[in-house]
């Protein structure tokens, strides 16, 4: 009976004390632009948005006695997508439930688990807003499996990887994870590159040395079939890759879908047949990004794409180089506080202030310009999956652990993808 009562107390504390704060912070903390964009309550699995294109065509000059202009309504494109499922699993050991005999001990047990779950949700949700919807975190160049179940893998990037993350490993040409490559935990990440010659380079028998990162993955079965021959070839189209568990092609349509030319459709509309969907692209010179580059990109987006870019999201190297540029040229820098505790550099374009912020999930040498008024987050509040009359906690099968599952559904929509601006070579 003590177990039942303790679980009921856990449940009450989670719902009344933690959940409201969780919902509020996840709408602000993952990234600076969240506080500025529109939030819409998700009411259906299908999300439809109307994006206007260009000007109305009903204007014309004339003279007395001549025909007046014909009406020409604004052209609209129908964007359609579906809500994506998001889940967070919170576990409390049966031992902790039974032995939690005081309010203080109970608070400590809950606080530890909730903080860990929130950190995982914040990081993954924030990352997905910059992804392209595929869920691919990195390309795998090669791997070696050891008898103790630990895989050593060489990958092209670690920006979207984190120790402790549970991931799936896909081999060359795979559309489903390798049979022994599911639910692997990232054990360690080496954040400095190493020179490595993969067993196979692309589809060629001639391997070339390249700069890669080394990671280790734990949880592979002892008789895993993952080998160098199957995992090699980390090309954009046919190589091995890593995703968050069960997430391949199931993630939010992030900003990366706008800027990635390998994504041929966005919100159900073909990019090649509708060039207005492509963002403005500005290449910076060898010295890195300047105020003149930014002005040029924002001016084109405003005049040609009807976009009022009000935020520049900078990769790490791009942000650092821009700060250096401002210091070297003794340019006045004014910052301001944004909601969520973020700080920005203020850039003046015309009569408007543009926030320049550092974003860890933007490619290192790039800046992405967005018009936050064109972005909408369609979502519900996070809530617990609850059995009818049975509460939110369930004992896991074959495990001495109780599970509470948080769920939410949502999607990010940009109503003017072509109004975004991609600056590249920003670090020189």
The total of helices stands at: 7
Strand segment count:
24
Pick out the low-confidence regions.
none
Alpha-carbon distance between the termini? 66 Å
* Percent strand: 25-35%
Specify Rg, calculated over alpha carbons.
Answer: 25 Å
Query: What structural class do helix, strand and pairing data support?
Result: alpha+beta
Helix content: 10-25%
- Give the overall average pLDDT: 85
Largest sheet: 7 strands, mixed
Outline type: globular
Q: How is the largest sheet built, in terms of strand order?
A: 14-24-19-15-18-17-16
Describe the structure.
This protein has helices at residues 2-26, 94-99, 103-128, 228-231, 256-259, 291-305, 316-328; strands at residues 38-41, 46-53, 75-82, 84-93, 136-145, 150-155, 166-170, 184-189, 194-196, 210-218, 240-244, 265-266, 269-270, 280-283, 311-314, 335-337, 343-349, 352-358, 367-370, 375-379, 383-384, 394-395, 401-414, 421-424. It is 22% helix and 31% strand. The chain has seven helices and 24 strands. The strands form five sheets. It has a seven-stranded mixed beta sheet with strand order 14-24-19-15-18-17-16. The longest helix has 26 residues, at 103-128. It has 428 residues and is of the alpha+beta class. The radius of gyration is 25 Å and the shape is globular. Helix 1 (2-26) runs parallel beside helix 3 (103-128).
């Amino acid at each position: 009976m003590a177990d039942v009562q303790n679980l009921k107390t856990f449940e009450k504390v989670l719902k009344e004390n933690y959940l409201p704060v969780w919902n509020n912070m996840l709408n602000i903390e993952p990234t600076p632009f969240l506080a500025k964009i529109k939030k819409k309550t998700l009411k259906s699995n299908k999300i439809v948005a109307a994006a206007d294109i260009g000007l109305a065509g009903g204007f014309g000059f004339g003279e007395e006695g001549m025909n007046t202009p014909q009406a020409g309504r604004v052209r609209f494109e129908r964007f359609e997508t579906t809500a994506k499922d998001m889940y967070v699993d919170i576990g409390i050991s049966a031992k902790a439930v039974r032995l939690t005999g005081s309010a203080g001990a109970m608070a400590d047990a809950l606080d530890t688990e909730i903080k860990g779950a929130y950190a995982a949700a914040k990081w993954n949700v924030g990352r997905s807003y910059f992804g392209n919807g595929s869920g691919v975190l990195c390309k795998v160049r090669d791997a070696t499996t050891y008898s103790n179940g630990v895989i050593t893998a060489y990958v092209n990037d670690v920006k979207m990887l984190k120790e402790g993350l549970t991931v799936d490993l896909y081999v060359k040409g795979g559309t489903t994870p390798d049979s022994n490559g599911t639910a692997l935990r990232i054990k360690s990440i080496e954040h400095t590159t190493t020179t490595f010659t993969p067993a196979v380079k692309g589809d060629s028998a001639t391997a070339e040395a390249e700069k890669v990162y080394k990671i280790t993955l734990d949880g592979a079965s002892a008789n895993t079939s993952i080998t160098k021959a199957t995992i090699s070839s980390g090309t954009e189209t046919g190589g091995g890759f890593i995703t968050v568990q069960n997430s391949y092609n199931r993630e939010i349509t992030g900003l990366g879908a706008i800027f990635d030319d390998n994504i041929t459709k966005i919100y159900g509309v073909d990019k090649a047949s509708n060039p207005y969907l492509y963002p403005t692209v500005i290449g910076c010179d060898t010295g890195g990004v300047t105020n003149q580059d930014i002005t040029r990109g924002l001016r084109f987006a405003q005049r040609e794409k009807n976009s009022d870019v009000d935020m520049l999201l900078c990769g790490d190297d791009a942000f650092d180089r821009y700060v250096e540029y401002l210091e070297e040229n003794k340019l006045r820098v004014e910052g301001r506080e944004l909601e969520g505790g973020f700080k920005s550099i203020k850039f003046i374009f015309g009569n408007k202030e543009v926030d320049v912020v550092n974003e860890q999930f933007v490619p290192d040498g790039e800046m992405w310009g967005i018009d936050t008024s064109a972005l909408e987050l369609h979502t519900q509040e996070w809530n617990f999956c609850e059995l009818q009359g049975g509460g939110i906690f369930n004992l896991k099968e074959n495990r001495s652990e109780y599970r509470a599952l948080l769920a939410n559904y949502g999607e990010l929509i940009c109503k003017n993808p072509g109004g975004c601006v991609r600056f590249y070579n920003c670090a020189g």
